[in-house]
Design brief:
The complex is a heterodimer of chains A (137) and B (476).
Chain A: H1 18-28, E1 32-33, H2 34-44, H3 53-66, E2 69-71, E3 93-96, H4 98-120
Antiparallel strand pairs in A: 1-3, 2-3
Chain B: H1 5-8, H2 14-26, H3 32-87, H4 96-132, H5 141-173, H6 178-208, H7 210-213, H8 215-246, H9 252-272, H10 281-300, H11 306-327, H12 330-334, H13 337-366, H14 379-406, H15 409-426, E1 428-429, H16 431-437, H17 442-454, E2 458-463, E3 466-471
Antiparallel strand pairs in B: 1-3, 2-3
Classes of the chains: A mainly alpha (137), B mainly alpha (476).
Chain lengths: 137, 476
């Protein structure tokens, strides 16, 4: 995922790594800062994916360079002066770009295709096991 | 989020705050670019995780967080440094892989060399000399195996490092200047001599038969066999460097000189035999050290901070007198074998300290935030071109940006196309040529070419004080 892929064909970036996919999913519904992304990913994957600072920010850096996400220029609207954490100003918020949304959609439809194939072959859902989360992709 | 203003004053979270401070220190593992962009956020994130873990499970949970975070830190730091290293790999004149990893090998090899030549004789050798008045390296099995293997590791890595360093210097210079070229001549001469003696000596020993029939002698000769082989690789590296330098686009006399010297050395050896080679082993080492010195001088001319350039040079300057001291039996000069061991250990470690420092210098050079895409010309030219490109980058959003705002987009695109077609016709172009070939004025052509080069679309080189622009190789 290099800078040369920026805003090109979304298909060129799929398949995504599990970390990239989960960060995109975390940012799909709202802008978040690093800790917010980490908590969302951990909770959604039932604690199976815990992003260390190096992994999280290394991936975010490459995603910003590739145009998948961007740094938000202002704090999210829901953070008004009354409820804002003391260090909100020190944190950078990230949000999905239009290109990032298209890449996420491309990846999800790829995964959908994989699941459909598995269903056709009678492999999914496996008996006695629950559906895997994207963290296990 | 767990963090709040009240918690800062809470003594219970001292461990969490201490962890955050330690993590901030460990951020040094990441390249400067990552630190500048993300260090503050990463520390905040880790601090949040620390407080959260502390709340959920106390010190044990915090310890587990560290156990998860440390591998993450090491792996991601390696990945980021690798990415910076690859991005900032200089346009190589020499072999790419060697240039890229040479500095790292030099650092490791140099450190091993220091431990072998300095720490070992100083701590163990000197102690043994003082207590027993025996030869410091001893003759026990451990020493017999340990010393050659350590030496082999040090020399092999150093050889890769030196090879790579020289390649890196050549690559950064674009072409070897007079000093680098002369350094290559010395290195090549030394390489040829050592190569010849290293092959000869083990064969001679095996032919004598003593290595096959006397077990203890065999151990000793194994050591003496391994060391020349390591030397062989080392100087083979130099030899290849000499050849690489020989293939550079230099004036014919500079390319013929190494060849003539090589021919002299090889013919002397072949005709005269080992014991009356005009350049004996001692002089070969001296030649080699002079090569080091020239390498140090070349590196000192790199566009790096003064302290990074002068320290290796100083050490290399000390090598030659130290070597003379060693050559004339230090113990005889200094009176005490213990003192002599320390002095000799120090003297012999100097090349390796120099190698390690040069590796460090070059790795610091790689840790820049922008890529040094410069080829051609001398070191000064490369520096000038780099400075020029940087200043153009700074002004691109100024003068050139302001101008392009007032010029219609269509006109600018047409002019740019005219310029690119002119480059394609000629292969390479100067500003004056561009002004002649297109509808642009000299000033406009200068500004436009500089801006294109600053954005990485064109290659810039300097030839006889002329700035020449061309397409990147394979891009035209």
């Amino acid at each position: 995922m290099g800078a040369q892929c920026t805003r090109g064909d979304p298909e060129a970036l799929v398949p995504l790594t599990p970390v990239t996919l989960n960060i995109l999913l975390a940012l799909a519904d709202e802008e978040r800062h690093g800790y917010g992304i980490g908590v969302e990913v951990r909770e959604r994957t039932g604690g199976r994916m815990r992003l260390g600072p190096g992994t999280l920010y290394g991936t975010l850096k490459r995603m910003v360079d590739s145009g998948l996400v961007e740094e938000s220029e202002s704090l999210p609207e829901e953070l008004d002066a009354g409820t804002r954490p003391y260090d909100a100003e020190r944190r950078r918020y990230y949000r999905l770009t239009g290109f990032g949304e298209r890449v996420l959609a491309a990846e999800l439809s790829r995964l959908e295709g994989v699941v459909r194939t598995a269903q056709e072959k009678g492999l999914f859902p496996p008996s006695g096991r629950r559906t895997s989360s994207p963290g296990e992709a | 989020m767990v963090s709040s203003g009240d918690e800062r004053d809470d003594g219970r979270h001292r461990d969490a705050w201490a962890s955050e401070r330690v993590y901030r220190t460990l951020m040094r593992a990441y390249p400067r670019e990552v630190r500048r962009r993300y260090a503050e956020e990463m520390v905040l994130y880790f601090g949040d995780l620390c407080r959260e873990e502390w709340h959920s499970g106390g010190p044990m949970a915090l310890a587990l967080l560290w156990a998860r975070t440390l591998p993450d830190l090491i792996l991601s730091a390696l990945k980021e440094r690798g990415a910076v290293l690859l991005r900032n790999a200089y346009l190589p004149v020499g072999p790419v892989i060697v240039t890229r990893w040479g500095a790292l090998c030099a650092l490791v090899g140099g450190s091993l060399g220091v431990s072998h030549f300095f720490l070992y004789p100083l701590l163990l050798g000197a102690l043994m000399s003082i207590l027993t008045e025996a030869f410091p390296y001893g003759s026990d099995p451990f020493t017999m195996f340990f010393m050659p293997s350590l030496l082999l590791g040090a020399l092999s890595l150093s050889s890769l490092g030196l090879f790579g360093l020289y390649g890196a210097v050549l690559a950064r210079s674009g072409r070897p200047g007079l000093l680098a070229g002369t350094g290559a001549v010395f290195s090549t001469g030394a390489a040829a001599l050592w190569l010849a003696t290293s092959v000869y000596f083990p064969i001679y020993m095996l032919a004598r038969g003593s290595a096959l029939f006397a077990p203890f002698e065999w151990l000793w000769y194994t050591g003496t066999f391994v060391i020349p082989v390591a030397m062989l690789f080392w100087f083979l590296g130099f030899l290849l460097l000499g050849i690489a330098a020989f293939r550079q686009p230099l004036p014919v006399q500079l390319r013929l000189l190494p060849l003539a010297l090589l021919a002299l050395i090889v013919s002397s050896y072949l005709l005269g035999g080992y014991y009356w080679v005009p350049f004996g082993k001692t002089k070969a080492i001296l030649l080699w050290f002079v090569g080091f010195l020239l390498l140090g001088i070349t590196t000192a001319r790199e566009p790096l901070p003064l302290r990074l350039r002068l320290l290796p040079l100083t050490l290399y300057a000390l090598i030659v007198p130290s070597y003379f001291l060693g050559d004339y039996l230090a113990s005889a000069t200094l009176g005490s074998s213990g003192t002599a061991t320390i002095v000799m250990g120090l003297a012999q470690s100097l090349p390796f300290v120099g190698i390690a420092l040069l590796g460090w210098v070059l790795l610091k050079g790689y840790d820049t935030e922008e890529s040094l895409a410069v080829s051609g010309g001398s070191v000064e030219s490369a520096r000038a071109t780099h400075e020029m490109t940087r200043s153009v980058s700074r002004t691109t959003s100024g003068a050139w940006g302001a101008r392009s705002a007032t010029t219609s987009g269509a006109k600018a695109a047409t002019q740019e196309k005219e310029l690119l077609k002119a480059i394609r016709r000629h292969g390479e172009i100067t500003v004056a040529q561009a002004a002649l070939e297109t509808s642009l004025s000299v000033e406009e052509a200068d500004r436009m070419l500089s801006a294109l080069a600053a954005r990485g679309h064109l290659e810039v080189r300097i030839d006889d004080a002329r700035i020449i622009y061309s397409f990147w190789e394979g891009n035209g």
